[in-house]
Amino acid sequence: MQSTNQFVEFPLFAEKQVTLVLKREDLLHPFISGNKYRKLKYNLLAAKAENHNTLLTFGGAYSNHIAATAFAAKEKGLNAIGVIRGEELKDSWQSNTTLSRAYDDGMRFKFISRNDYRNKEDPEFIKQLKKEFGEFYLVPEGGTNSLAIKGCEEILTQEDKEFNIVCTSAGTGGTASGLINASFPHQKVLGFSALKGDFLKNDIMKLVSNDRWELITDYHFGGYAKISEELILFINDFKEKTKIPLDPIYTGKMMFGLFDMVKRDTFAPNTRILAIHTGGLQGIAGMNSVLKKKNLPLLNI
Ligand SMILES: *Cc1c(COP(=O)(O)O)cnc(C)c1O
């Protein structure tokens, strides 16, 4: 399964003689968008091969990974359990678009406190969950493991050889790691961190087979899922001019950062940039309900 590359035209890029092409992974699948589809692919095959009938995974209230896992499990005839961060959602999840859609896809939830959520990798905690739910195939939070990285290595193809720079947004760094491993020797991968903090660099270092990459940490806008009016207006303007929607948590921040770097002459003339549109558009509705409460402008859908 391959996505299409789309050239996008902006006066800024023309002025700096830099080419920008978007790889539309967001269009790969109507519900399991972008990199979450890649990350689940080999995990689903493994779950089936090991004769599991249930997937269990972790995520937050607006998680693209929860949405993707619920839909993929349904498609493969597997049960799905989502362990969700935030006990308070127990009574209000029906009004959350991500969770109610995942429920309609058959996912069942266990809501736990933020404190308990920190144990998500603790073998004791996993054992407890197995007592409660029976055997399951465990997909880690954000979906990143070695099979997920293998799936993300398939994002790049021979035709992408013409680019010098490959950009992606980074959460756990699994997608960036796949791209780094699959990149051609003349290419450099830029991961735009969607989170505050430096740990991501070490995480990626452990997962990759070369050092032709850099983690860009200047465009997280205050941390995971934090957004500003400036970012919203940028995303709306990008949509108006290209007809391509960006999500506010990952791809919007990457594109904002990329524009800023081009403005600052980070890239030499004739640089050819491939930016991966990793998807995440299912989260826009949830973000808009948050923005409405804060009296901020809404994202155009
Ligand atoms: C999850 C996600 C990412 C981050 O992927 P990682 O492999 O965790 O770094 C980027 N973009 C979108 C749209 C996502 O949903």
From TrEMBL:
The keyword Secreted does not apply. Its cofactor is pyridoxal 5'-phosphate. GO terms for molecular function: D-cysteine desulfhydrase activity. It holds the Pfam family PALP. InterPro entries: ACCD_DCysDesulf, TrpB-like_PALP, TrpB-like_PALP_sf. Keywords: Pyridoxal phosphate. SUPFAM superfamilies: Tryptophan synthase beta subunit-like PLP-dependent enzymes. Coiled coil: none annotated. The keyword NAD does not apply. Gene3D superfamilies: 3.40.50.1100. Residues 14-279 form the Tryptophan synthase beta chain-like PALP domain. Belongs to the ACC deaminase/D-cysteine desulfhydrase family. This is Tryptophan synthase beta chain-like PALP domain-containing protein. It comes from marine sediment metagenome. The lineage of its organism: unclassified sequences, metagenomes, ecological metagenomes.
